[in-house]
Amino acid sequence: MSTIAEVELPANEFALCQTLDSVPDAEFEVVRLAAHGADHVMPYVRVSGTDADPMNEALEDDPSIEDAELLDDLGDELLYRMNWIDNIHVIMHVLLDEGGTIMEMYGQNNRWHLRILFPTRDTLSATHEFCTDKGLTFSIKNIYDLKQSTGRGEFGLTEDQYTALVTAVERGYFDVPRDVTMGELAAELDVSQQALSERLRRGHKTLVESALRVGDAASGDDS
């Protein structure tokens, strides 16, 4: 049965480590990722939280990448195409050895968050064993099967996203007008406003995508 896993990787064991350290306020989101050969991957990366000049300088000095090209500068968001050539053992194993698919991937500060579709639960286990053997960190935060029908796993929410969304609903954050501010909610959850905003945004996106998939499946059953 196909399995989706939410995992975390430490930035110091992965590509763009130096860049994340040089520009700590930047957030990276991989919008497309493909393996090219057995030694590098070519992602399209959306960057927010920084300007083009410091980001270009950081990317130029980062030994884990090459040929970083700025494709679009929207002011509050940058789009790059680049080659990742180092610290990509985990990604190469997932894509080439286990036939996995990277559904979502974003990084900030000291970690990367990935949502990976594995063909079977065994291929997820094999990836974990691969990382253990290589001395790499592969922290599994959430696992659910595509046929799972109950619980949070049905929607693919991480624990943090689920907690943030439930608390926001209970405290009236989504009410009009709002009964609580982002700052008050962040203080209650003991996280930064930026971290909370990210959890709400990504959790909301996951819920919408899951609802659309459920709707499509229901339409197919009725036909």
Question: Strands, helices and their partners?
Answer:
Blueprint: E1 3-10, H1 17-22, E2 27-36, E3 40-48, H2 52-61, E4 65-73, E5 77-84, H3 89-97, E6 101-108, E7 111-118, H4 121-134, E8 139-145, H5 159-170, H6 182-189, H7 193-222
Antiparallel strand pairs: 1-7, 1-8, 2-3, 2-6, 3-5, 4-5, 6-7
Overview of this protein structure:
By secondary structure, this protein is of the alpha+beta class. The protein has two domains: 3-145, no CATH class; 152-222, Orthogonal Bundle (Arc Repressor Mutant, subunit A). Helix content is 40%, strand content 30%. An eight-stranded antiparallel β-sheet has the order 4-5-3-2-6-7-1-8.
**Strand line-up in the sheet with most strands:** 4-5-3-2-6-7-1-8
- Strands, total number: 8
SSE-based structural type: alpha+beta
Strand content: 25-35%
Q: What is the helix tally?
A: 7
Provide the residue-averaged pLDDT. 84
Oligomer: single chain
Keywords:
about 220 residues; alpha+beta; Arc Repressor Mutant, subunit A; 2 domains; about 30% strand
Q: TL;DR?
A:
With 223 residues, the protein is an alpha+beta fold. Helix content is 40%, strand content 30%.
